[in-house]
Design goal:
Length: 103
């Protein structure tokens, strides 16, 4: 029986999920593109949960997210909204999506 390779959380995956999350509307800073159902209440182990439940993998998703906006990842609690505030985080997200050719 062959083992199925787990997909990686890449910039492309992040961009697709970020677009879905932003288009949903509502309180963006209560959401996370890497979390199941975009729920910010997901524990780090549930981020992109069907891949892995280890903290190293969860931190990878956080690094992809912050670097997407050109920010430096320092801690799992330093999401773009907490670094930039909701309005600027949303604005920079759309700018990055356009700049990188995702929209």
């Amino acid at each position: 029986m062959s083992q199925r390779r787990k997909p990686r959380y890449t910039e492309k995956v992040h961009a697709r999920r970020l677009i879905q999350m932003l288009n949903r509307g509502g309180k963006v800073c209560r959401s996370c593109p890497a979390a199941r159902g975009f729920s910010y209440t997901s524990s780090p182990g549930e981020l992109w949960s069907y891949w892995s439940t280890d903290m190293k993998t969860a931190l990878h998703q956080c690094k992809v997210c912050t670097s997407f906006l050109g920010a430096e990842f320092t801690s799992i609690i330093n999401c773009p909204c907490s670094i930039l505030g909701e309005e600027l985080a949303v604005k920079k997200s759309w700018e990055a999506l356009k700049e990188k050719g995702y929209v």
